[in-house]
Design brief:
Blueprint lengths: L2 H7 E4 L3 H10 L1 E6 L5 H12 L3 E9 L3 E4 L2 E4 L3 E8 L12
Antiparallel strand pairs: 1-2, 2-6, 3-6, 4-5
Helix pairs in contact: 1-3
């Protein structure tokens, strides 16, 4: 996998109550990823960008919700989410250091 693809695969962390629970209970981190990304690409990107060891990756497609607007019915975009399980003792800290 080329270096350019490594930087494009991960779109950002998913910050929610469910992802925080997964992080506490199972040493997992949740990322929003490209819809075309594979498990191997996600694993490689996380290991190279954050310098951690990845044990497993689970991927799921999130369907966009249908919403009513004043112009009729609209739909949010579909997106892909990855649950990345880190090996024991590994950690990713997203806090910004100043």
């Amino acid at each position: 996998m080329n270096q350019e693809r490594v930087y494009k695969v991960l779109l950002g962390p998913v910050v929610s109550e469910k992802s925080a629970t997964a992080g506490d209970a199972g040493n997992q981190v949740v990322f929003k990823v490209l819809p075309s990304a594979t498990k191997l690409e996600i694993k490689t990107a996380v290991q190279e960008l954050f310098d951690v060891k990845v044990e497993a990756v689970r991927v799921l497609n999130v369907k966009g919700k249908t919403k009513r607007t004043r112009y009729g019915v609209g739909k949010r975009s579909d997106w892909k989410k990855a649950y990345v399980r880190l090996e024991q003792g590994q950690d990713i800290d997203f806090a910004v250091a100043e």
